[in-house]
Amino acid sequence: MTANTAYPRRWKRPPQLVTTRRWRLTLPLLVVAYLVLALGSLEIDAGRVVEGLSRGARFIQGFLQPDFVSRWQDIRQGLIESLTMTLTATVVGVLISVPIGIGAARNLSPRPVYLVCRSIVAVSRSLQEIIIAIFLVAMFGFGPFAGFLTLAFASIGFVAKLLADDIEEASASQIEAIRATGASGLQLIHYAIQPQVMPRLIGLSLYRLDINFRESAVIGIVGAGGIGATLNTAIDRYEYDSAGAILLLVIAIVMLSEYGSSYLRKTLQ
Amino acid sequence: MLTLNQLTKAYSVGDPALRDVTFRVPRGQVVGLIGPSGAGKSTLIRCINRLVEPSSGAIYLDETDLTCLGSRELRRARRRIGMIFQEYALVERLTVMENVLSGRLGYVPFWRSFTRRFPGHDIENAYRLLDRVGLLAHADKRADALSGGQRQRVGIARALAQEPELLLVDEPTASLDPKTSRQIMRLITEICAERQLPAIVNIHDVPLAQQFVDRLVGLRAGQMVFDDTPDRLDEAMLTEIYGAEDWTAMDQEDDEPESSSDTQISLRLPGAAT
Q1: The complex's ipTM?
Q2: Which residues in chain B have Cβ-Cβ distances shorter than 8 Å to A190?
Q3: pTM exceeding 0.90
Q4: Does A107 touch chain B if contact means CB atoms closer than 8 Å?
């Protein structure tokens, strides 16, 4: 303040995370030691890498000459199964997600409902599609029905969670304004919430449609029907040319639906 | 008529937001509620329609005690109380007409509001109100396509669509320019006079309040410290409400809108003559 106070001419940013000097030195050492030990336990084997690369070359050879014709009947049926599974699972999943998403929004639901709905979401999200598919195939047998159930169940966790988060971010003043008119609970959801979250819900559903098609190719491998089952059979029979054709078709359909859904989402905003 | 009797709101931590607030608003009177931020102005008007639950005391709208209603009766009471919000609080993706009709939600069953089939007299009345606030031509626009002043007039029309017996107005001019602020305040006071509506207007702009309201209530830290006509608010009283400050500069600002007569004419709203 006064003219003759001496202020320091050096300044260093104080440590933000670890404040004791000893730990600042030992922590990185511990991390490096763990990394070295972990790499040692992986049994990295150069011979297996070489062998694997030559097998990979055969895959690529097959994929470079895709054969759409000789297994066309199987491929066609697999694709139809996959698309049916995807569409039905998405519609059913989204329909079930809407009430669960509303229930899982803290700003609308009473505490017990909130907790129940959030637990449903948590269970659905913590189980990977393949694990669900393995269970459901064991329960209901091979085929697209198990796949449909798997995808619908997985969609619930995804759509309900993101919908609930979006409802929680909805403008509180608009909710308050509709509540102040004497609206009932259903009217409140329809007039104050739905207009705010509808574009997002449509976007999420289209995005989930994409994901479900991609997942349908994966869960087929564990027996849940669809194009994944066809792909698995082709690889088991060493028919890499047919497998290549299937992969190309999957990529084409995913790209098409990706392009279509992003176009739709843009026009809906 | 609205009667507040020893209204108190205490939160679990900190000082109570409202302490023993008692006053009465007769028909047709517009009361301006002033006070520094955090004095409890917003809490007070939200306690009246119970968007905030009061801790103790009573609130009478005519004969009904609003503090002890069950949820169904509360909804019936809320539709008698129109509320106008800071930053408008319109549902932005709905049309102007839907926003006005949302004032009828407490009166119609869910299927009517869901299919947008409101009764004919509700729709007729909504058009009349839009004409009254000068927005008849904008009925089918989306609410977020309007300017600030226009949006606040939709907010007023929505509150009036409830055919309220009381208006609660929360900082109606907070994000509007000085000219639009005066237009909105004039519209609110004119409508209250036409319909003999009691109103509580929560407002931080003291000169604007003095210009338009019939009576001022001053809150400081949740307690009423002033209740009188606006011309009785002097520097000593302002210091009592807001704390020490040089208040003399404010008077010039106060005179400004009256200074030229042609401003007065341009401030008249379309439809105000009807």
Answers
A1: 0.85
A2: 110, 113-114
A3: no
A4: no
